[in-house]
Amino acid sequence: MIGSLQVTIPAGCMNDCPFCVYRQHATRFRTEWQSNHERWTQEIAKRVRYAASRVAAIMITSHGEPTININYIRDVMGIINRVAPEMAHVEIQTSGVGLTEEKLDILYEAGIRVISLSVPALHEEDIIRIMRVPAKANYEPLNLVAMIREKGFVLRLSIAMTNWFDDYNIDYIMDLLVNVWKPSQASFKKLYGADNIATKVYDELLTEFKSRTRYRKLELLALGAWKYDADGIGVVWNDDCMVSEETADPRYLILQPDAKLYTRWDTKGSVIF
Ligand code: SF4
Prior knowledge:
With 273 residues, this protein is of the alpha/beta class. It contains eight helices and eleven strands. It has a single domain (2-270), classed as TIM Barrel (Alpha-Beta Barrel). An eleven-stranded mixed sheet has the order 7-8-9-6-5-4-3-2-1-10-11. α2 packs across α3 and α3 packs parallel to α4. The protein binds iron/sulfur cluster (SF4).
């Protein structure tokens, strides 16, 4: 079984993160979503049917901020719910910026139950500073997190391990997670191609984490990383989120806006059909 079907939403981004991988791998895909909606619907449906028996979960993602294009999300989820209703585990990866209560309700209504919120730090003001969130966005990460929880979503913090983490030890970080952010899950993601902003202490923090005997291993995930229980939070250390290692089988199927399936983010040569 392949880990997930990654559905890429065509959208720009209001943020300007210095570690943005999407800007480094700026492969563009044409979409017929607006110009020939009927054909686009048929092509997407075909790929969703193919993926249905092969993947464990669906991740809604983007080369920008997916919730900017909420209508595309609604359309693609409508197709998934119609042709593959068994694919019920659907997550969305978002920066959270511009994610209003109304949009959260639309995501819930569409069938999405897990919100994976990307943060490059664990202090609110540093998140906004590092992501260079425009002031007019009025982004308040902790208020958003409370609203996500109230609405009944499972909240995952997808933590980009920037050099913000150089100044803290694992106990301080875990204390912020448990007492301030209170996610159901947290994944610590190693940054690639951004050496000037990536933390230098990723391996040290991971070693410290593993040495805390009260944290126990739960299961090995399809992406190849172990999931731990840490004071009631499901924690994953993901040091290969770009699938840089060679693997015999694809870890993802990626449904791009051109309605074709790929196995890699960084090359159109990975197209399946
Ligand atoms: S929020 Fe995501 S897409 Fe936008 S700049 Fe940051 S990393 Fe890139």
